[in-house]
Design goal:
The protein has 114 residues and is α+β, with helices and mostly antiparallel strands. It has one helix and six strands. 15% of the residues are buried.
């Protein structure tokens, strides 16, 4: 009984130490790296709000048209995720620029940082 209790206590202490060294997890299950501002990944893993989705259209016959603008104050790397179709690939967007991404198939899912 003593060995079992000691093993459980040691395991719990090791887990607490690991969490303490790695940083606490956020509500989204992402580790807080301490970096504030535009580059922080949002709860769903999507690009931050400073990457403005000014126009997102899913065409009735399939296809996506997405226009993004970067107001993050720095260059951001973003990717448009499309259901049932290849994603956009990682695109570098300098601050205060826009990007139009279109497909002939699929449905818009989300925009993420990459």
């Amino acid at each position: 009984m003593t060995r079992t209790t000691s093993f459980v206590a040691t395991t719990a202490a090791a887990a607490a130490l690991t969490l303490g060294l790695a940083g606490g997890a956020t509500a989204a299950g992402q580790h807080d790296t301490g970096h504030a501002g535009a580059a922080r990944i949002t709860a769903a893993g999507t690009a931050p709000a400073c990457i403005e989705r000014t126009s997102v259209q899913n065409n009735p016959d399939g296809g996506v048209r997405v226009y993004l603008r970067n107001f993050c104050g720095k260059t951001m790397r973003v990717k448009v995720i499309v259901k049932y179709w290849p994603d956009s690939g990682c695109k570098s967007m300098p601050n205060h620029t826009g990007w139009l991404f279109q497909t002939v198939g699929g449905r818009y899912d989300r925009t993420v940082v990459c």
